[in-house]
Specification:
This protein is α+β, with helices and mostly antiparallel strands. It has 10 helices and 8 strands. Helices cover 58% and strands 17% of the residues.
Length: 353
């Protein structure tokens, strides 16, 4: 059958759009690789190849700031080389999709990105602390070094602008590949292969995010453990696996509430919610005094409608060894109450799955 002029025009427009997306994939990959290369050449290499005497930074701090950026750069140099070769031969969608499938097929590649993304916040905070004149860790020589390079060889880009790019790159792949998929006919082998590449990249990005959340949770648990006083002997916040479950304990939510109805009148408590327990403490400057820890498996949460005094209250009920106990906690704002209700109900429901 003859192809209508309208259909022909649509097909041509789709092809043009697809070619532009392919070019954007290669161009942005080249920009990413060049940016990391510039960061290594301008900011990193002078610190390790021909360091000043005395050194501006010791090796340990250099590693904590730059992480494995050199390995990420080498990895993506390979990706860029393959993409350019494909474009030179004729921009095969099957080959482009295959490049991304093979990128994530190797666990070592995912691990490199996971390491960088998991430690990025610590790297950023350390750099900020070292360059803050008000910090006890302030390093004037480092600040002068970074300011001078930013104004010169780094072409106005601060080190932080380079270091964040490996964090941003994997989600960008999803956007680019999804756009490419949208402009590919569904009844073609190219569409099926691109769909695999999009789905695989989404899985990897979620794995990277989960790895980051787990790392942050472990750091939070360790910090709280050192700040917790008066806990029963053997009580540990950082556990390799939650009691009764297969997942490690993770931090979820925290905040100040007021306990009402006890014999001594109302009192302020500081609650921490984890994936398997609700921890009640009393805040004392930089410490938290242990009050009780309730397993979420035993906990029931009920919303108490706002009363005439305008209090935002929640009823918590749980079973002890002998009988049921309950406590009414009041939040300061409606948003805090909604936050607690949502976090508690979601965490309890997750335990039942």
């Amino acid at each position: 059958p003859l192809v209508s002029a309208q259909s022909f025009g649509q097909n041509k427009a789709t092809t043009v759009r697809r070619d532009r997306i392919l070019k954007e994939i290669v161009d942005t990959e080249a920009s990413f690789v060049n940016a990391l290369g510039l960061c290594i050449k301008v900011y990193l290499n002078p610190l390790i190849v021909n360091p000043a005497s005395p050194r501006i930074l010791e090796d340990k701090l250099i590693g904590e700031i730059f992480l494995n950026i050199q390995l990420i750069w080498k990895l993506n140099c390979t990706v860029l080389k393959k993409l350019k070769a494909t474009m030179t031969k004729g921009a095969s969608l099957l080959e482009v999709a295959d490049h991304f499938l093979k990128l994530w097929e190797q666990n070592s590649n995912v691990n490199e990105y996971s390491y960088f993304i998991t430690h990025f916040d610590k790297s950023r905070n350390l750099l900020s602390e070292l360059c803050n004149p008000k910090s006890s860790s302030f390093n004037q020589r480092l600040k002068d070094y970074l300011d001078g390079l930013q104004a010169g060889a780094a072409k106005g880009m601060p080190l932080q602008a380079f270091l964040i790019q490996p964090v941003q790159r994997p989600p960008r792949y999803i956007l680019l590949l999804s756009d490419l998929l949208k402009h590919t006919a569904e009844d073609t082998p190219e569409y099926a292969k691109l769909e695999q590449a999009v789905n695989r990249t989404k899985v990897v990005v979620e794995q990277l995010n989960e790895s980051k959340r787990t790392s942050e949770s472990v750091a939070k648990l360790n910090m709280l453990q050192t700040s917790l006083v008066g806990a029963p002997e053997g009580f540990r916040l950082h556990m390799p696996a939650a009691v009764g479950g297969s997942s490690p304990r993770q931090y979820v939510f925290e905040g100040v509430v007021m306990e009402a109805g006890n014999a001594k009148g109302s009192r302020y408590l500081y609650m921490f919610l984890f994936t398997d327990i609700l921890l009640f403490t009393k805040q004392m400057k930089n410490k938290y005094k242990f009050k009780r820890a309730i397993p979420l498996d035993d906990l029931t949460v009920s919303d108490i409608p706002q009363n005439e005094t305008g209090q935002m209250s929640i009823l918590l009920t749980w079973s002890s060894t002998i009988h049921y106990e309950e406590i009414v906690v009041t939040c300061r704002k409606a948003e805090e109450k909604e936050g607690w209700l949502g976090a508690l109900k979601t965490s309890i429901a997750a335990r039942k799955k």
